[in-house]
Amino acid sequence: MLLEVAGLDLRYGATHAVKGVSLTVGEGEIVTVLGANGAGKSSLLKAIAGAEKPTGGTIQFNGRDITGRGASQRVRDGLVLVPEGRQIFVSLSVEENLLMGAYTRSGAEVARDAEEIFDRFPNLEARRHAPASVLSGGEQQMLAVGRALLARPKLMMLDEPSLGLSPIVVDQLFDLIAELNAQGLSILLVEQNTQMALEVASRGYVLELGALRAEGTAEELAADASLVEAYLGNAEDAA
Amino acid sequence: MLIVQQVLNGLMLGGIYVAVAVAFTLTIGILNFLNFTIPTLFMLAGMIGWSVSFYGLPFGMSEPLGWIPSLAIGILCAIVASLIVERFTYRYFKAKHGDATEHAIPLVSSLGFLLIFEYMILIAHGSDPRGFHTPFGDLNWRVAGLVISIPQVVGLIVSLAIVAGLSVLLARSKLGRALRATAEKPDTAVLMGVEVNRIVPIVFIMTGLLCGLAGALFAVNYGEVSPFMGEQVGTKAIAGMVLGGLGSVWGAVAGGLIVGLTETFSIYFFGATSAQVTIWGLLLVILLIRPKGLFGHNAIGKGKF
Amino acid sequence: QETLKLGHIVPRSGPLKGPGEPSIAAIDIAVEEINAAGGVNGKPLEIVRFDSASDPKQAALGARTLAKDEGVLAIIGPFSTGEAAVAFNVAEREKLVMMSNASSAPGLTDGKEWAWRITEDEGKQFTRLLETLEKMDIPRASAEIVYVSDERIANVVGTQLYPALLEAYGIPHGEPVAITYKSFDLAPQIAPVVQTDPDLVAVAGLPENAAKTIRELKRQGFDGRMIGSQVFSDPNILELFGDLAEGTTFMAGFHKDSSPEAAEFDARFIEATAEMGIRKLGAHHSDAQSYDAVHLFAKVMEEQGITGDPAKLEEERLAIREGLKDVTFSGVLGENLCFAGGDAELPGYVITIENGEWKLMDSHPADPCDDTAS
Amino acid sequence: MPDPILELDGVGKHFGGVVVLQDVSFHVARGARHALIGPNGAGKTTLFNVISGVFPPDEGTVKLNGRDLAGVPSRRRIAMGMARSFQNIRLMPHLSVVENVMLGQHARQGLLGQLKPVGLLPQARERRAALDLLDAFGLDAYPGQVVANLPYGIRKKIEVVRALMAEPELLLLDEPAAGLNPTETAALRDFLMEVSARGVTLLVVEHDMPFVNSLCEHVTVMNFGRLIYDGTAAGVREDEAVLEAYLGHRRKGATNAA
Amino acid sequence: MSGYLSGVIAILGINVIFAYGIFVTAAAGQLNLGGAGFQAIGAYGAAILSLEFGLGIWAAIAAATVIGGLIGFLIAFPILRTRGVYMVLATFAFAQVVVGIVLNSNYLGGSMGLIMSDYIETGAIIWATLGVILFVFYLMSTPMGLAMRAVHDDEPVADLMGVNNRAVQVAAFALGGAITGLSGALYAYYFGFVEVQYFNALLSIFVLLYVLIGGTQTAWGPLVGAGFFTLIPEALRMGEDWRFLIFGVLIVAMMILRPEGIVTRDAVDRIRARLSPRARDA
Ligand SMILES: Nc1ncnc2c1ncn2[C@@H]1O[C@H](COP(=O)(O)OP(=O)(O)OP(=O)(O)O)[C@@H](O)[C@H]1O
Ligand SMILES: Nc1ncnc2c1ncn2[C@@H]1O[C@H](COP(=O)(O)OP(=O)(O)OP(=O)(O)O)[C@@H](O)[C@H]1O
Ligand SMILES: CC(C)C[C@H](N)C(=O)O
Ligand SMILES: [Mg+2]
Ligand SMILES: [Mg+2]
Fold first, then answer.
1. Averaged pLDDT score across all residues of chain A
2. Are B85 and E221 contacting, i.e. CB atoms less than 8 angstroms apart?
3. CA closest to A152 among chain B residues
4. Which residues of B touch C (CB under 8 A)?
């Protein structure tokens, strides 16, 4: 297993946001975490990334216990989080934001990889030297994803990457996820676009009020009527 | 002749302000942190330098030392103090939610340190100014009836050299980028792999070094140090920094020199107490016309809707 | 009540800490002497201190506290003109004697009943200096004035006394040049002063300011004489001025060689301050004045039969004031000294620095007290 | 179109050399549920900013209820009946949830109302109104909390509630469903249907096409700052230009146009 | 009441009022590092009105308050052109100029100060303090107070909510100027002396610290902050210079432990909830 989280617990003062969650992500796997607003998905990812200090449990990455490691060290280990809400650096230019993603790397490849991102997201190319603050919401999201890709991680955790992206770009994004996965990148994905998430993922977990409510293969989850009712919505309802 | 001499006096006085103004502008520009301990770092270098040259190292570790090693120790102490400030102010400053007064948090702790350092020195050495003696009889250069202070000229040149280096470093390098990112969103910078606790201290080391050097030059030049020298130079340096525009290193250079000249001529024409009105009045007027100073950049905004 | 309580308001921090704080040692020496000899009316003296931090308001607060809470019989201090000008109002309100030990601006006690001081007026002292200069025919064709504008006493002296007195002695002078207490770079102010090449530069400022002034004067090539009244006349200026001090001439209200008692006091004082961790080269006139103030109070209290009984506090405070009115006293300051109005009449010593030493150039006896002036 | 509430006529906007809006003209009918869609960077949010007065258009006019808004300061527009939410959540971080919502009432209170000590009166009408609206959105668990730490989806909803608190005639919503899961999205849609039934006109920017399709009867599509489609919701699924630029062909039968 | 206690209470009262003057602008997002300047205006206003124009105590205090407000109003326009740290330093510059003008004016006593002919006792200050506290609590409970806090958090959004940012900020400055002016007038009458050196940069810094350490989120902040700052040094009085050192350490510790100030909304809500479970949603 690439990532093994066991009994992870996270409290913010009185709020018990994550309650003893265990999950695994295998080498080359795409795993998704689903749940309602406030279920604790973002908190879980932040704890795995080291941005929040868990109050219990252990995290193993690449066969090594990283529970006590700092967030920046985990990036060096190859564990990267694309945080919720974009979090781009508005005081840096678009290009500088991308390069920040490659902070732990150096060499000529970085520039090449950056060009590749620009090729994929022409909107970014057009604003390359502009301050990132002028980007539209969706463009900022593209930038956030592109930035994470530049880290060349082993495991990428994406927190609602499709937020604010137009349908075409969502498609592109999920294609990209599949493509990267094919190249060996493992992915832990939190998505509100549950149908697409379950389409690309092989396995999934469902969180409710901080605790694991269900886990299984994507097909199992998609077929679970009670889950569909609570989180996944159903096609007729939406149509 | 008197006028020429006064222009020289103004530029040399401004030279002292420049180094401190640059230190201010660095921490504001890079870390968005108005670090009020900067004047005390300047003072620490001078006072500790004096103390070592007068009493020797503490706990009887040495006899009084010569002026060069004493000032070197003073500068070192300023750097260490600056690092202590980093440890207890900036490191605790996590911009959780952006709002108009957020820069107040480290600012307040830095004011706490201002009191701590100033009163530590006052407790140790009292409030009196102390003479600082160098072996040079006369540190002045007299040409054509003009008196020019050599340490001040050296100080100005050193400041300018450091400034030139810094401005290139910050605008272009990976370090500069990481620092700016950290200033804006420390939590996110960490997620990029930035070791915030390693790179932020670099800024504080530079700050300590700049202030320390300025403090040492001050001691040599005026042959005197005092626990209040920081306040004196600090407020004017702030004026210089604001005049130039926050975060603009060359702006701080220009601002520092403008303040020096303004002060000198204000004193010359209207008397000692007039400088306060002219310097700060000029600042207000300039802010009225250019709310971001002469060479200021746009401040970090919240981004778009 | 076991002891007779006197208040002492002293600047233990702020700009006046340097000259002001050592008065603690001077007062303690006197108290020790008196108590060792059996106290006053059989009771030991006790000093209750309050730190004014060189701040007039703190001095006033201290006066109020000492008067109301501590029930002191009288107060020594506050130290400086700035502090006294404000705190004296409290003395009037609370009705107890306040004896300032250093404030020397003219007119400070005028129209007040409870405000006293055991220092000599700067105007009188500077007049004595000018007299001596004239007597000794020291070059004085022209003068410039440099003063510290944000210290009350220096400001009064620099803007009012020096100009008037220099004129009275026929010495032309330029517009007084202000420096501020904390200015470090005096080049812009001093440049025009040196330009006129005066014989004398009269300085009004605390020792540190005087030190800076002389340093800048010399740097710019001044070769005349720096003079001053009492404001910077601290024995420590020898160290503070360094080798630039030579020839500086000024007034002091105390001189250790004026009497054997004075010399003994000076020596004990240096020891006592050293114990406090303060390095003094000798007693400042305000230290001698503080020392004598304690003895003076002891004398008056003895004469008035003060008991320190809290029930009689009000009347005993009044008795002390009445006792001061026609007292004469002797001490380290001089013999048979007295008060004219609220102000003590004290001698003045003209000091010049020669070969790195204080040298007595001339001395002026205390004026006699004129009973009609008040 | 009969009685449009909002009329845009030839609106243009550029930042420096970058043209962001170009000749945008369309109307929003009173009482309509109108969607504004388009690719990322098409200029939708910019158009919202122009309508709400964050910055003036460089060209063209914006009319609300027939009145030209040129020169009307942004803060007046909410009192004229237009309220909006924000794509990047902009709640007041130091205000509690209920205070954030009460801020929505600001424009409706006169100077005297501004001086009523609402905070000292636990039963004040202003507070009750805010609490009731929060209840209606299922947010009754949160009123006293500071918003900063709430989950994204919750904050997104509070934004909508705050805008509604202004009792607008025209409600501009910038991606209200972003960050909501399908079930919550459906609930939001139902709620907006109710709001619409009360006569409030909706202009919604949204990328969630099932949501758009089930809520709005009229759709305007932008690309590169220009209008490329303005018509019925049904028609947009057949429009080749829109498919090309925005929806994409591949999954058109599946998720996007469900 | 003992003399010492009444003295401390008077200073506390003056500081509390002063802090509220700064708080009112800080609550609306404007950090005023020019407190000393505004207080000097009140103090010198009262002094001149009483010494030169013979106004009675209360008339002079009221007039000084109005003058403070007026100057706050006028200076708001240029100062509000700047933002963030620039504004902090513009207010600082303003105070420096005010003090500089006093310093250079013989009419205002220059650096020698003015000695008042009348004085007030602690009781008067206590009443004034209570009045100001009640007023600010009232203000912060109104929609206007809410608007001020909204301006503090996010100006552009407040604007779109219909808040007239400019008016709120100018009003806050005027009100802050008036309250600060009041504190200055009381100061002048209580100490019987105004001297310009008192109104120095450190004073501006201190009063801002009262407010920021107390917390800008609720009207309790300045009360707690000014109380803490006035009383702790008194409690530490034995230590002389040490007390400021300890004080500095406390400031740093405070910011580490409670970066948003001693009193935050959360804290107030929690206390209130404990006191009356009914008002939990307040
Ligand atoms: N910094 C924080 N301090 C206090 N409570 C927090 C903090 N961050 C999150 N919480 C609380 O933890 C719980 C879980 O929040 P989290 O953001 O992880 O939910 P989520 O599943 O990501 O929701 P969403 O889908 O809306 O993003 C919520 O109740 C939230 O209020
Ligand atoms: N101040 C500015 N300077 C330069 N370009 C800008 C500025 N503001 C916006 N833009 C550009 O204008 C375009 C439109 O932005 P806008 O935010 O309106 O897009 P949008 O349609 O809302 O997109 P999204 O769906 O991604 O939110 C973007 O490409 C953006 O980069
Ligand atoms: C000791 C002196 C400097 C005090 C001075 N004589 C004064 O009146 O303030
Ligand atoms: Mg989340
Ligand atoms: Mg948008």
1. 89
2. no
3. B192
4. 2, 5-6, 9-10, 12-13, 16, 122, 126-129, 131, 133, 138, 140, 147, 218, 222-224, 226, 228-229, 231-233, 263-265, 267-268, 271-273
Residue D84 domain-assigned?
no
D1 pLDDT higher than 60: no
Read off the pLDDT band of E110 (50, 70, 90). confident
How far is it, in rounded angstroms, from Cα A219 to Cα A232? 13
pLDDT at B137: 67
User: Which spans in B34-148 are helix H?
Assistant: 38-55, 67-88, 104-125
And the tokens for D12?
Answer: 């243009």
Please check whether residue E246 lies inside any domain of the structure. Answer: no
Decide if E139 is inside a domain: yes
Q: What is the distance in A from the centroid of ligand 4 to the CA of A41?
A: 6
Does D243 reside within a domain?
yes
* CA-based nearest residue to D74, from E151, E157, A134: E157
What pLDDT digit, counting tens, does each position of C49-103 carry? 999 988 888 898 899 889 988 999 999 989 999 899 889 989 998 999 999 999 9
Residues of A in Cβ contact (< 8 Å) with B196: 72
Domain extent, residue E43, equals: 3-199
Taking the Cβ of residue B119 and every Cβ of chain E, the question of whether any pair is shorter than 8 Å is answered with yes
Give me the phi and psi of E123, to 5 degrees please: -50, -45
Domain count, chain D: 1
Model ipTM? 0.85
Report the distance separating Cα A120 and Cα A146, nearest Å: 9
* Within a domain: D2: yes
Q: What is the largest CA-CA distance in chain C?
A: 66
Contact B109, E256 (CB under 8 A): yes
Could you list the residue range(s) of the whole structural domain that residue D208 is in?
1-75+201-248
Number of domains forming the structure of chain E: 1
pLDDT tens-digit map of C330-342: 999 999 999 998 9
How many Å separate Cα C126 from the centre of its chain? 14
Q: What is the CATH number of the domain that holds E42?
A: 1.10.3470.10
| Residue C1 pLDDT greater than 70, yes or no | no
Domain count, chain B: 1
Ligand 1, atom 12: closest residue by C-alpha: A17
Residue B236 has pLDDT above 80, yes or no: yes
Please report whether residue B267 resides in a domain.
Answer: no
Q: Dump pLDDT digits (tens) for C180-208.
A: 887 888 989 999 999 899 999 999 999 98
Q: What is the CATH number of domain A3-89+153-238?
A: 3.40.50.300
pTM for the full model?
0.87
Q: Name the DSSP class of C253.
A: S
Instruction: Report the C-alpha gap between D152 and A73 in whole angstroms.
Output: 27
**Is B134 part of a structural domain of the chain?**
yes
Question: Would you say residue E236 has pLDDT above 80?
Answer: no
C305: buried, middle or exposed (CB in 10 Å: 19+, 13-18, 0-12)? exposed
* Interchain pair E152, B302: CB under 8 A: no
Q: Is the pLDDT of residue B95 over 50?
A: no
List D residues 136-165 in contact with A (Cβ-Cβ < 8 A).
Answer: 149-154
Distance CA C283, CA A61 (A): 75
Three-state SS string over chain E comes to CCHHHHHHHHHHHHHHHHHHHHHHHHHCCCCCCCHHHHHHHHHHHHHHHHHCCCCCHHHHHHHHHHHHHHHHHHHHHHHCCCCHHHHHHHHHHHHHHHHHHHHCCCCCCHHHCEECCCCCCHHHHHHHHHHHHHHHHHHHHCHHHHHHHHHHHCHHHHHHCCCCHHHHHHHHHHHHHHHHHHHHHHHHHHHCEECHHHCCHHHHHHHHHHHHHHCCCCCHHHHHHHHHHHHHHHHCHHHCHHHHHHHHHHHHHHHHHCCCCCCCHHHHHHHHHHHCHHHHHC
Q: What's the one-letter identity of residue E111?
A: S
C89/E119 CB distance under 8 A: yes
